[in-house]
Amino acid sequence: xxxxxxxxxxxxxxxxxxxxxxxxxxxxxxxxxxxxxxxxxxxxxxxxxxxxxxxxxxxxxxxxxxxxxxxxxxxxxxxxxxxxxxxxxxxxxxxxxxxxxxxxxxxxxxxxxxxxxxxxxxxxxxxxxxxxxxxxxxxxxxxxxxxxxxxxxxxxxxxxxxxxxxxxxxxxxxxxxxxxxxxxxxxxxxxxxxxxxxxxxxxxxxxxxxxxxxxxxxxxxxxxxxxxxxxxxxxxxxxxxxxxxxxxxxxxxxxxxxxxxxxxxxxxxxxxxxxxxxxxxxxxxxxxxxxxxxxxxxx
Length: 299
Description:
Blueprint: H1 2-50, E1 53-58, H2 67-82, E2 87-93, H3 95-106, E3 122-127, H4 137-145, E4 150-154, H5 157-198, H6 201-209, H7 214-251, H8 259-289
Antiparallel strand pairs: 1-3, 1-4, 2-3
Helix pairs in contact: 1-5, 1-7, 1-8, 5-8, 7-8
């Protein structure tokens, strides 16, 4: 009979541990997913901002006999633009390249319809993401325009501001959902731990009544919480990165994944899982240590 009761308690304990681990794994999976979305949302935001270009134009007056001198001057100006603080990427577009692009856009195969080199050479500039900001765009344009050799700078500032505002709103929503998921993670894991500790409330009180110190009683529960937190984190992160790897290989991204950010996310999820389980265990156990014996039947 005693063996049957002992086996039943072992099965109940095993079932309780599995439930806690699954709960931790599921919550940390969702939390890690939000972390990946947040990291990549910022990268997508920066990538989109870098696609918004500014065109800096050289003098359109052109004399064929001074072509070598003009090209040298324009090349020097181009290198100066590349070194400017707001510039992320710059592309030098010669008159020949501009004429070829014009023919292509107009569907013209022959050069007989207009003279060569009628389009001025220019520099196509992608600004750094932090400069695609209503407060900094004008400053960046002035700095580019002040470069010797540049006579005009054109950009669609209205589009840049609109894109900036839309991306900022999207990032705020994602950040808000991330905070919400963090709160839900704490609540769900805490509830799972409390249910587990609730099943052992009589054992806790018995140990206390026979003279065991609170620290001694807490120690095995904290150790078990750390182990359950680690197992749950491993399971949750394994599923998360397995799904993420499949997503990357099937769909792909326009930018490389930063290994340092991923490592930081993994370490953060591990520490968060352990921290929540340990704190929840301490609070739940402490509650029953302070409860009267008679109240245990109504807790």
